[in-house]
Amino acid sequence: MQANSSSADRIREKKKLFLAREQRIIDAAIELFLEESIDRITVSKIAVRAGIGKGTVYKHFLTKNEILIRIILDYEQNITTKLTDGIQRAEAGDSGAAAKSYFQARLENPKLDRLIQQLEDRLVESDDVVSQVEELHQLRRSNEDALAGLTGKLIDRGVLEDVPPHFHYLACWALAQGAIELCFNKTWNYRTDTTELMEFITNIGVTMGNKGQYHLDETSTNKKSKSK
Fold first, then answer.
1. Exposed, middle or buried by CB within 10 Å (0-12, 13-18, 19+), for 139?
2. Is residue 74 helix, strand or coil?
3. Deepest of 124, 166, 168, 203, by most Cβ within 10 A of its Cβ?
4. Do 122 and 22 fall into the same domain?
């Protein structure tokens, strides 16, 4: 029995070391991608930054694209975890919690968020990570379904404007996307108060779409009435 226990302990320790080394590879890759052009970063450079051999990297990832998609999936999972917590708190009474969680997840590190988008653009049509890209899309669809359900409840409770639920969460996406782009816009990226600005945008996003904020202009209302 003791021998079996020792064997199990060794397996667990080996797995723990394997996962730790894998995370080291991912962290090294992110550091390099944030420093240089994606095209200039090779598996060899990643291995050197991680302090391991190139062959060892291939024990974890068969291609550079597999490293890229893993970075994207990890980032999306972080958003999902925070969003799930926010949705639970919103259903418990804190109506703005889901939006706040989403904005905080994306705006806490604009440079990384922008990198993720660049990596994803490269992988959309890559043949070697098709299943992982589908996993990413499934994760996002699951988040969208959860947001649609929550938004519908908040509309029924009179917290949010009565518009199609996807108007609300796509507006949040658009605001977050614009905030990220703002950080790198050549006209505005000289500013040194980025952290405070992201917090301000987050606070705006939390109340965006609340009941009483949306008013159709008379022209639009008249057009709708005549079309009925």
1. middle
2. helix
3. 168
4. no
Structural domain including 19 reads: 1-61
**What's the whole-number mean pLDDT along residues 73-99?**
97
How many domains in the chain? Answer: 2
Furthest C-alpha separation in the chain: 82
Query: In terms of domains, do 10 and 101 share one?
Result: no
Inter-axis angle of helices 165-184 and 110-123, nearest 10:
110
Same domain, 6 and 75: no
Asked whether residue 80 falls in the same domain as residue 189, the answer is yes
Nearest by Cα to 139 from 198, 75, 192: 75
Task: Name, in order, each residue with C-beta under 8 angstroms of 50's C-beta and a sequence gap of 6 or more.
Answer: 21, 24, 25, 27, 28, 57
pTM assigned to the model: 0.88
User: Does the pLDDT value for residue 225 go beyond 50?
Assistant: no
Task: Indicate whether 221 pLDDT > 70.
Answer: no
Same-domain status, 197 and 108: yes
- What CATH number should be reported for the domain holding residue 104? 1.10.357.10
Instruction: For residue 23, name the pLDDT band (cuts at 50, 70, 90).
Output: very high
Count of beta carbons in the 10 Å neighbourhood of residue 75:
22
Best CA proximity match to 150, nearest among 105, 77, 142: 142
Question: What would the mean pLDDT of 109-136 be, rounded to a whole number?
Answer: 94
112 residue type, one letter: L
Q: Do 75 and 57 lie in a common domain? A: no
Of all residues in the chain, the percent with pLDDT exceeding 90 is 82
